[in-house]
Each structure stands twice: as structure tokens, then as C-alpha cells.
Amino acid sequence: MHSRRALLYMPGDNWKMITKSVTLGVDSICMDMEDGTALNKKAEARATIAKALQELDFGRSEKLARINSIGSGWEKEDIEAVLPFHPDGIVIPKVESFEQVEWADRIIEAAELKQGWPVKSVRVLIGVETARGIMNLREIAAHPRLDAVIFGGEDFAASIGATRTREAVELSYARQAVVVTCAAYDLQAIDIVTIDYRDLKALRAESEFGARLGYSGKQIIHPAQIEPVQTAFTPDDASISYARRIVETFEASQQAGKGAYSLDGKMIDMPLLKNAQKLLARARAAGKQV
Ligand code: COA
Ligand code: MG
Fold first, then answer.
1. Which ligand is in closest contact with the Cα of 153?
2. Max CA-CA distance within the chain?
3. Distance CA 279, CA 242 (A)
4. What digits encode the pLDDT tens for the residues 190-214?
5. How far is the CA of 92 from the centre of ligand 2 (A)?
6. Same domain, yes or no, for 161 and 42?
7. CA 206 to CA 52: how far, in whole Å?
8. Residue 236 falls in the annotated catalytic set
9. Nearest-angstrom CA–CA distance, 34 and 38
10. Cα–Cα separations (whole angstroms), residue 13 to 4, 51, 220
């Protein structure tokens, strides 16, 4: 799966931001036709994204296009405008049911067959950011086309009538429901945007908190947010070497017939091994030698 520590949005009609984004070394670039694009710029966004997919070299950045939500009336034209130019993935916002993913899956599969691309070569990421989306996530997340679930904090707060706070306590239940469901279905979980993009200290803290919750990445809206977020979602050297020691000593202790043993005065057993393996997998996905 493509590593998505940071997923950078920009309005799909903004050619300047799109051309800048491909130079930044960000994991994922999401050209937006939804809320980042003004109501009178939807058509321009479609044409600009199609042009970017044809003309720009995205390097190692993943190229994604976010369509308008299903039921908005724009979604069909959005997806049809960009699909022929093979984005790496389509992002569907405000998903509330399995059928909505089915709708996109049918259109994408038809395009894949028509163009002779491998089936499932266009990935689908969904935004879950409403009360219904969270309620139905268990069914939605079972869809085989999915790669990742993106949790939208601002939309979710609006959906339940919560007041957003810096500590984000009002999001706790949904934010954790997303991580748990993603883990159950082996999907990536991508955390909320820090909209105060000038406050990099708050961004680092929020990113580290998201990583500790189990998120694999975070949505961002400004180039200055790339480095803090990609760093926070990359395991650091100390945790990598500790995880490696757990993996190595675990093997020896199993062979000595011990399920639980002591390392640096702490008890190690199976769950700690699994966590260490997960951390090493994440480090590898982020391009670290482990
Ligand atoms: N992607 C790529 N480049 C971006 C960018 C983004 N999301 N946001 C800003 N930039 C570029 C600017 O074009 C500018 O480039 P330049 O130095 O070559 O002129 C540079 O980064 C600095 O931008 P800055 O002046 O600090 O930001 P701004 O005031 O122009 O814009 C925002 C601030 C928040 C309006 C803008 O960052 C933005 O539109 N972000 C994306 C919002 C979005 O897509 N929301 C929907 C999804 S939640
Ligand atoms: Mg949203």
C-alpha cells in the first residue's frame, strides 16, 4: 500500500498550487473538486485536474482526485472528467453507505476494463465525516475496493453539532472508531486536518497524538505542514531499534520455552511483539531501512 503519512489538498482549479505540489516530496497529492473548490469553479477544477494528470510528472507522490459527495449532483461528471487520465486513486467525501462505494466501484471498473488497465489499479479512499458515516462504517469498510479511510474532523463536528476544540475531545469517539475499523479491515486511517496551518507546534503535537492513536497519516492543507506531519508519522530511530530488539529477543525466548520474558526491566510477550512488527512495517513503508 502507498505510504500516506501526509495527504495534501489543494483546490482543483488552482493550477499554481497543483504545479507547486509536485515539487514538494509529499506522499499524496489530492486535487479537490469538493469543498476546496468554489461552487462556480467546479467545471474549471475538472478540466484543470484532467490537464494536471496528463501533463505533470508527480514523481513519487500519489496523485488523487477528490470528487463531490454522492448525491451532490456533481459526482458523476467529476469522476468521468478525471478517470480517463488514470489518477492513482479517487477520494469520495462524506461516504455514508456501502452502496455509495459500490457506485464508484462500478464506474471505475468499467473504465479499467475499457482502457485495458488492471482491475483495481485505481484505488478508492473514502472520507467518513458525518454521523451516518460513522454509524455505518462497519459495513462500508468491508468494501474490497478500499485502501484508506479519511476522518474529517470539521465536517464531523458540524454533523453532530459539536464545538471544535484544540484538544479535539468532541471527536474522540468517532476518531477512534475509524482507527479500530480500519485495523479490522487492514485499511489505512488518515487523521483530521489542523486548520491553523501557521501553528506548527500545535500541528506536531496533534500529529504525534494521531500517530499514537494508531493513525497512519494525516490530511494537510499547506506546504509548511508536510515536514512536521511526515516526520510524526515515521517511526523514529530509537523506537525502530527497540522494536528490532523485541523481535530478536522474542525469538530466542520462544526457543528457550518462555512466552513472557524481561527486556530492560519490562515484560515482553506476544502483543508487544505484534506492536513491534507493526512499527517496523510502518517504518519500512516510510522508506526507512529496518
Ligand atoms: N498546495 C500547494 N501549494 C500551496 C498550498 C497547497 N495546499 N497552499 C499554499 N500553497 C503555496 C502557495 O501557492 C504559495 O506558493 P508560492 O510561494 O509559490 O507563491 C506558498 O504555498 C505559500 O502559500 P501561503 O501564502 O502561505 O498560503 P495562502 O495564504 O496562499 O493560502 C490557504 C492559504 C489555506 C488558502 C491554502 O493553503 C489552501 O488553499 N489550502 C488548501 C485548502 C483546501 O484544499 N481545502 C479543502 C480540503 S480540507
Ligand atoms: Mg470534509
1. 2
2. 69
3. 10
4. 999 999 999 999 999 999 999 999 9
5. 10
6. yes
7. 32
8. no
9. 8
10. 23, 10, 18
* CA distance readout (Å), 9 to 66, 135, 168: 9, 26, 21
Q: Is the pLDDT of residue 228 over 90?
A: yes
Q: What's the full length of the chain, in residues?
A: 290
| Integer Cα distance of 45 and 67 in angstroms | 10
Segment 107-114 shows an average pLDDT of 98
Name the residue with cell 488514470: 86
Q: Which of 195, 211, 232 is the last residue of a domain?
A: 232
Nearest to 125 by CA among 65, 46, 58: 65
**One domain for residues 125 and 150:** yes
Answer yes or no: is the C-beta of 222 below 6 A from any ligand 1 atom.
yes
Write down the residue that cell numbers 453539532 correspond to. Answer: 161
Q: Are residues 245 and 188 in the same domain?
A: no
Q: By residue range, what is the domain housing residue 257? A: 237-285
**Cβ contact 126:69 at 8 Å:** no
Residue 102: inside a domain, yes or no? yes
Substitution candidate for ligand 1 out of 7, 14, 17 with most atoms within 8 A of CB: 17
Contact 215, 190 (CB under 8 A): yes
For the chain, how many structural domains are there in total? 2
Cβ of 36 below 6 Å from ligand 1: yes
In this predicted structure, the answer to whether residue 1 has a pLDDT above a threshold of 90 is: no
pLDDT at 161 over 90: yes
Q: Determine contact, residues 4/216, Cβ cutoff 8 Å.
A: yes
Residue 9 in contact with ligand 1 by CB distance below 6 A: yes
Does residue 141 sit in the same domain as residue 255? Answer: no
Whether residue 150 contacts residue 127, with contact meaning beta carbons closer than 8 Å, is answered with: yes
Give me the amino acid identity at 236: D
pTM of whole model > 0.70? Answer: yes
